[in-house]
Design brief:
With about 180 residues, the protein is of the alpha/beta class. The chain folds into 2 domains: about 35 residues, no CATH class; about 120 residues, Rhodanese-like domain (Oxidized Rhodanese, domain 1, 3-Layer(aba) Sandwich). The chain has 9 helices and 7 strands; from the N terminus they run H-E-E-H-H-H-E-H-E-H-E-H-E-H-E-H. The chain has a 5-stranded parallel sheet with strand order 3-7-6-4-5. A two-stranded antiparallel sheet has the order 1-2. Strand 6, helix 8 and strand 7 form a beta-alpha-beta unit.
Amino acid sequence: MATEAIKMVLGKGEVLIGRLMLYDSLRMSFKNVRLRKDPNCELCGDNPSVHELIDYQAFCSVPMPGDRQDYLGFDEQEVSITAQELKQLLQSEGRITLLDVREPHEWQIARIDKARLTPLSQFDEYIPEFNPEEEIYLYCYKGMRSLTALKKLYDKGFRKLHSLSGGIDRWAEEVDPDMPRY
């Protein structure tokens, strides 16, 4: 990306607009993939609805190494659940509170059955709807945003909380290999 920025600033070379360059370090090969603009994209489509930058800290919430438990206020291992454990719960229990804290455009790509979309960017609005006496399971793409949402609930007195370790990406890898990955 830095090289692309330099080419654009200098007005030299061929920029990758409309293309993605993939580099395979094991094979020492490069591949160009043409990309089509999505007319329904919330950012760059025909009718964009996103007009400002996102709050990166709230979106990704990546604490500094060593500060994670201090930041969370609880032991991450105590609230983590594996993809296989969640699969068993979904198969054995009738009703389960499963919250997907990704954004709507991610929800459209892939989702776990029985999940409810509650985007982290609007999560505070949903909190009054949840029952602190119920077990609540959260997931996101890789696991960080679900821990941030879990912390918000924890700070409000919820204690029966679980986060899918590795997020929906690990779910797709270990439980549902036909699920699209992004």
